[in-house]
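User: C-alpha cells in, sequence out, please.
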C-alpha cells in the first residue's frame, strides 16, 4: 500500500524534540526522507536513529536557520543527501518571555530571529528552487508549512515578542500562498498545542501524561497526521490556511477581515469620530480574549 509521502523529502526544523520530533517520525513512517534540523546534536541524532531503527530514511543537520547562508547550506545538504526537496516544515522556536515593560532589545531580536527570520530563510531557498524547476517546465509539488500559535492569532500576556513573531508568520503565510501558487507551491500555517521543551516546564502540571491511560491530548504526535497530509501531494488544493490542532480537535482559524463599514461619503469631523467608533464596536463581533488577560 502506497504511503502518503512516499519518496518525498521533507526538511523539519526543531526536530530534535517535541512537535518537530513527532512530525519527523510520522513523516518517515509515511515514506518521506527526513532532514532533521536542530541545534542539539544529541537529540537530533536520536530522532534520526529512531527513524532508521524502523526502516525509515533520515539524516540530521545542525545548521543555522537564522542565517540566510546557513539556511542555504541546510537546503543544499538535503539536496546532496536525498536528491530533491518537496516540503519545508518550519517548526523551530524559542521563548524569552517578559512583560512588555521588561522586554529587552535582545529578548525581542532573539525571538524574532529564530521564529520569523528562521521561517523566511529556509522557505526562500526552497521557493527559489521550486520556481526554477517550474520555469524549466517541471511539475512542482512544493509545500511550506509554517508554525504559528494561539499567541499569534490573539496575543498572549507576557509574550509580546513571541506573539508578534507568530502573528508575522501568519501574514507571511498569506503572502507566500498568494505569490507562490503559480509555481505549484502551497503555503499553510499550523497553530498547534502539544507538549514541547518550550511548554512542558511552564505547564508541567496541566500537560502531564494522564496516569489513568486516557487520551493524552497534549501528546505532540496528535498534530503529526495534519503535517504529513500538508506535506503530501494530495493537499495541493489546500493553500493559505492556518489550522489549529489540539488533541483530537482540528479547525481553520478565522483571522482578521474587513468588518461592518460605516461610510459617510465624506471626511469625518473629529468631534463625530467617537460616536462612529462606539457604534462600530457595538455591532462588531468581539475578538477572542488575549491569552492571560
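Assistant: Sequence out:
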Amino acid at each position: 500500500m502506497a504511503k502518503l509521502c512516499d519518496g518525498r523529502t521533507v526538511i523539519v526544523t526543531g526536530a530534535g524534540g517535541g512537535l518537530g520530533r513527532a512530525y519527523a517520525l510520522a513523516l518517515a513512517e509515511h515514506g518521506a526522507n527526513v532532514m532533521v534540523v536542530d541545534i542539539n546534536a544529541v537529540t537530533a541524532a536520536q530522532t534520526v536513529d529512531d527513524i532508521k531503527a524502523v526502516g525509515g530514511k533520515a539524516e540530521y543537520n545542525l545548521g543555522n536557520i537564522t542565517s540566510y547562508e546557513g539556511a542555504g547550506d541546510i537546503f543544499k545538504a538535503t539536496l546532496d543527501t536525498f536528491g530533491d526537496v518537496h516540503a519545508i516544515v518550519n517548526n523551530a522556536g524559542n521563548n524569552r518571555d517578559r512583560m512588555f515593560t521588561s522586554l529587552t532589545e535582545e529578548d525581542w531580536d532573539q525571538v524574532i530571529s529564530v521564529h520569523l527570520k528562521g521561517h523566511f530563510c529556509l522557505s526562500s531557498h526552497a521557493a527559489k528552487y521550486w520556481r526554477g524547476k517550474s520555469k524549466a517546465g517541471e511539475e512542482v509539488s512544493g509545500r511550506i508549512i509554517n508554525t504559528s500559535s494561539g499567541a499569534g492569532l490573539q496575543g498572549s500576556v507576557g509574550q509580546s515578542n513571541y506573539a508578534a513573531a507568530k502573528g508575522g508568520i501568519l501574514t507571511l503565510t498569506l503572502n507566500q500562498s498568494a505569490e507562490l501558487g503559480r509555481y505549484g507551491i502551497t503555503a499553510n500555517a499550523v497553530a498547534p498545542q502539544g507538549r514541547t521543551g518550550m511548554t512542558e516546564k511552564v505547564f508541567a502540571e496541566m500537560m502531564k501524561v494522564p496516569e489513568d491511560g486516557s487520551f493524552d491530548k497534549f501528546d505532540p504526535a496528535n498534530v503529526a497526521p495534519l503535517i504529513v497530509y500538508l506535506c503530501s501531494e494530495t493537499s495541493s488544493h489546500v493553500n493559505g490556511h492556518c489550522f489549529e490542532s489540539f488533541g483530537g480537535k482540528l479547525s481553520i482559524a478565522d483571522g482578521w477581515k474587513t468588518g461592518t463599514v460605516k461610510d459617510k461619503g465624506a471626511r469625518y469631523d473629529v468631534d463625530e469620530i467617537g460616536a462612529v467608533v462606539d457604534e462600530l464596536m457595538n455591532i462588531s463581533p468581539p475578538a477572542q480574549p488575549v491569552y492571560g488577560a
